[in-house]
Specification:
The complex is a heterodimer of chains A (383) and B (268). With 383 residues, chain A is α/β, with parallel strands linked by helices. Chain A contains 14 helices and 16 strands. In chain A, 39% of the residues lie in helices and 22% in strands. Chain A is globular, with a radius of gyration of 21 Å. In chain B, helix 6 links the parallel strand 5 (164-169) and strand 6. The mean pLDDT of chain B is 97. The chains are: A alpha/beta (383), B alpha/beta (268).
Chain lengths: 383, 268
């Protein structure tokens, strides 16, 4: 029986790496609906998951896909779905449900150019704020943004680990370029892959929805008589649809368990953050151009620092604030019309000017030269 | 009955048919020899009928988003084929917002039981028109009378490929219990439509103020399936056709999936 793929060097497409990462993370259920540019994840998992004893199914739509994932998760199984913008919109109701009921699951959003059908085959980064605020009501999200095929593998595993640790849905916010590019990656031996599994309740403990920051999670069919509901509920799962204190206590804990652990969740890649005069904050495919911009800048004697967000939400505020202490400006390049730009502006609180460099449509990336030219122009204006 | 229920007061309005459906279901479970509901998982969406299992049944229950109970039940059943997975829902939940999922579960012949309590109205939200509301009925969103033809959910489920499908009303308590018993025993998709009374949000606006009025209306307007087949369409207008619409054997979906997985594990 083939389980996770053998360790070694591979030349994979991003979506394939994501699918294999899921298997390596212990995912045994997938439900999805075809959509460009995420379909390869479904195609790969419908072949591979049954080989591991798992189940992968194409559902009738995205609501059903995440619904089935949630049902599977309550049987004690790690479960995932994958989609793109239009499908991600449809999944928002069940993302909120998974958050409210503390159902661990992973949602992959390989972003394309939106809104609406937009440009289905072309890359975009316009779902950043939807990933943060897409569902209604008070909400805290965990969103990871891979920028390589290696990270499509690694961060998928990390997404499962965070979902299991915090009993919450986790979004892997990929983009069309990272999902469809092929490059080399290393699959480590399974012993070297850290895996987290949800805590099971001890006998007699019936508080599956409270009394601890992250309560233990029972499974159905094991005699727990568990009550799962997306309505406001007390720590025993009993619906409390009018009590203000029960609602406040529940929702504050759900938001708080992510907010107070932000330092454990947040990951970023920083270079020259504390000495730079020009700071760049980037993520996903756009960050790949930034590496080159930094090198080009050196030739022009520009002292550029770079924070590459591996975790988009919770937002890595502390490191961005650190950058703001020394930098004269912060530049945020994005393939959208300003999303992380506003968050960056919010956290630096006017300490330095924040500029955006934006490009949308046709899947055209911001090139290193374009970004450098935009920076040079700003430098001149500042002088 | 006590071993099936948590010690909680039911939330339903006076005269509501949900209690009859609950009673019929539990009698069926009892007749099948289940001492408790340990081997059952209940999924329900939004609406009054979705509250029948959650939290009143002493069992695992997953009370989900509006219309999505069947997808959640699909995930549970595929990973735990050994469990009896039962969906309770209203006509709005299952034949309105969730109709697509109902059709696809029937098409797959997913081996779960779906109990649709059809009160012909959106009751929990105060009596708005439903896909099942009779033509001409006044509701809060059809103040001049409903101008839409109602859906025949049971026949759709049959056409989609379910192994078992029946429709009865809360007037037919014994037949309803028997249909539920057979649905639970079905090796594929088991669907039972229970036409049920809502005096609060439906009856009082159509001149049938009490539960008794509505039950009498069910009695007088019900036509057994075999009789209905001999009648012309015009004479069936406004009638409730009751009976067993399908009882047949098709492969059960969770078993088909398990067999595929078994084969794939050999090849992998």
């Amino acid at each position: 029986m083939t389980k996770a793929v053998s360790p070694g060097t591979y030349f994979w497409e991003g979506n394939e790496a994501c699918a294999e990462g899921a298997i390596a993370a212990g995912c045994r259920f997938f439900a999805g609906y075809p959509i460009t540019p995420a379909s390869e994840i479904a195609e790969h998992l419908t072949k591979r998951l049954p080989q591991t004893g798992g189940v992968a199914i194409q559902m009738e739509d995205e609501m059903a896909s995440l619904g089935a994932v949630i049902g599977a998760s309550w049987t004690g199984v790690k479960a995932m779905t994958a989609t793109s913008g239009p499908g991600f919109s449809l999944m928002q109701e069940n993302i909120g449900y998974a958050f409210m009921t503390e159902t661990p699951c992973v949602v992959v959003d390989a972003q394309r150019a939106g809104p609406s059908t937009g440009q289905a085959t072309k890359c975009g980064q316009g779902d950043v704020m939807q990933a943060r605020w897409g569902t209604h009501g008070d909400y805290a999200s965990i969103v990871l943004a891979p920028n390589s095929v290696q990270e499509m593998f690694d961060l998928t595993i990390r997404a499962f680990n965070l979902a299991e640790r915090y009993r919450t849905p986790v979004v892997l916010l990929a983009d069309e370029i990272i999902a469809h590019m092929r490059e080399r990656l290393e699959v480590p031996p399974s012993k070297q892959i850290e895996l987290v599994n949800r805590r099971k309740p001890k006998q007699g403990n019936k508080a599956f929805f409270g009394s601890q920051e992250v309560p233990p999670m029972p499974e159905v069919g094991a005699g727990y008589n568990v009550l799962v509901t997306g309505s406001t509920h007390d720590e025993y799962g009993i619906r409390q649809t009018a009590d203000p204190l029960v609602h406040q206590k529940l929702v504050e804990r759900l938001v708080g368990k992510i907010a107070t652990n932000a330092d454990k969740i947040v990951q970023f890649e920083g270079s020259n953050v504390e000495e730079c005069t020009i700071g760049i904050v980037s993520y996903g495919c756009t960050s790949r151009a930034v590496y080159e911009t930094v090198e080009l800048g050196k030739k022009k004697a520009l002292n550029i620092g770079h924070i590459r967000l591996k975790t988009v939400w919770p937002f890595p505020s502390t490191i961005v604030q650190t950058m703001a202490h020394t930098a004269d400006m912060i530049v945020v390049p994005e393939m959208n019309l300003r999303q992380i730009f506003y968050e960056t502006e919010r956290v630096v609180q006017g300490e330095v000017p924040v500029f955006s460099v934006n490009k949308i449509g046709g899947g055209e990336m911001i090139t290193p030269e374009e970004l450098l030219a935009a920076i040079v122009k700003r430098v001149k204006n500042l002088d | 009955m006590r071993s099936y229920l948590r010690d909680l007061r039911l939330p339903f309005c006076p005269g509501c048919g949900d209690a009859t459906v609950l009673n019929s279901f539990l009698r069926a479970v009892h007749e099948l020899g289940h001492k408790d509901l340990r081997n059952f998982v209940f999924c329900s969406g939004i609406g009054c009928a979705a509250w029948i299992p959650s939290p009143y049944l002493k069992a695992d229950s997953i009370h989900v988003t509006h219309g999505r109970s069947i997808p959640v039940a699909t995930g549970v059943k595929l990973m735990r084929p050994d469990l009896n997975v039962v969906v309770f829902g209203g006509d709005g939940d299952l034949a309105g917002i969730g109709l697509s999922h109902l059709m696809h579960a029937a098409r797959r012949n997913l081996d779960i039981v779906v109990i649709m309590v059809n009160n012909m109205i959106y009751g929990m939200t105060g009596g708005q028109v439903a896909p099942t509301t009779p033509l001409g009925a006044k509701t809060t969103t059809t103040p001049y009378g409903s101008f839409e033809r109602p859906i025949d959910t049971t026949r759709l489920v049959v056409e989609a490929g379910a192994s078992y499908a029946a429709r009865w009303t809360t007037f037919h308590r014994e037949e309803l219990k028997e249909a539920l018993r057979r649905a639970i025993l079905t090796k594929g998709f088991g669907f039972v439509e229970a036409v049920s009374q809502c005096p609060t949000a439906f009856g009082r606006r159509v001149g049938l103020k009490t539960a008794a009025d509505l039950l009498r209306w069910f009695e007088e307007n019900s036509v057994p399936l075999d009789e209905a087949e001999r009648m012309v369409e015009k004479d069936l207008e406004g009638k409730i056709v009751v009976g067993e619409f399908a009882r047949r054997e098709f492969p059960a979906f969770s078993q088909t999936v398990r067999e595929m997985v078994k084969e794939a594990m050999k090849s992998g």
